[in-house]
Design a protein that fits this description.
Helix content is 35%, strand content 15%. It has 260 residues and is of the alpha/beta class. Strands 1-7-6-5-4-2-3 form a 7-stranded mixed beta sheet, with helices on both faces.
């Protein structure tokens, strides 16, 4: 609760943890209503207008991280994207289950999924962090085993904001030919980054939130070994009808981020 202060009411509630959630106001509503309400898969004019909005949103998100539009998969949010990354890779290696590296400070969407995979035959190493909350790349290198299939480490911690050395960790993953997934939800809010700079060969990328609740995106580099985790219409690699409003809001939100 704000108490006093120039221009602020003593009774005005204040939220300072905007990396967790944020309101968007009328500009967000205007963006979500742009080009109508049609089903992007329909051939009539309403559908074509909606499809154009979805394609534009996919292009905007791809440009934000210097990716190809075909490598962007829209999801319902961070939890689904993280689950897709871990479960999708596990499904691709179903007949040669092996080892996964993650850390003790990951979001529950990663930690709980890793625990589930442990119950289903996978081995998981949970790396510790320093007193500053930083993962040591040397610990990552030391944890690699002959059958390590995936390294999953967040880019920015969602509780304390620690920025992890993902560039160095990505280089380690590349050297050993291991898939690398990073939960970059919080990074989109505070960091400038480009995939091409991060020297990743096979990696998964996930981003969401920022005014766009219920929307997210997963970057899957071409050629990555990953399988769908549920089935439905072919509109997205994740299956299901494209939710035009959420896609447009996500793209709009990451554009708004540049103003801060």
């Amino acid at each position: 609760m704000f108490n006093g202060g120039k221009g602020l009411s003593a009774s005005l509630p204040g939220l300072l943890r905007y990396n967790a959630t944020i309101g968007g106001g009328n500009r967000r509503n205007d963006a979500s209503l742009e080009n109508g309400f049609g089903n992007p898969s329909s051939l009539h004019s309403f559908g074509r207008e909606a499809k154009a909005s979805v394609d534009k949103a996919r292009t905007q998100v791809a440009q934000r991280i210097d990716a190809d539009t075909t490598e962007i998969v829209f999801t319902s949010g961070a939890t689904e994207a993280d689950n897709y990354a871990l479960l999708g890779v596990a499904a691709a290696f179903e007949h040669e289950k092996g080892h996964i590296i993650t850390s003790s400070i990951e979001h529950h969407a990663v930690l709980h999924t890793a625990k589930y995979l442990e119950k289903n035959g996978w081995r998981v190493t949970y790396l510790p962090v320093s007193q500053d909350g930083v993962i040591d790349p040397a610990d990552v290198a030391g944890a690699i085993q002959d059958d390590t299939k995936l390294i999953s480490l967040m880019m920015v911690n969602n509780e304390v904001g620690t920025i992890q050395p993902v560039k160095e960790i990505g280089a380690i993953a590349k050297k050993h030919g291991i898939l690398f997934h990073t939960d970059a939800v919080q990074a989109l809010a505070c960091c400038q980054f480009q995939l091409m700079i991060l020297v990743w060969i096979c990696c998964l990328f996930q981003l969401t939130r920022l005014w766009a609740k219920g929307s997210g995106a997963l970057y899957i580099r071409k050629g990555t070994m990953i399988q769908p985790v549920f089935w439905g219409g072919p509109q997205e690699k994740r299956a299901g009808q494209e939710r035009k409003t959420c896609r447009v809001l996500l793209a709009w939100a990451q554009q708004q981020r540049r103003q801060f």
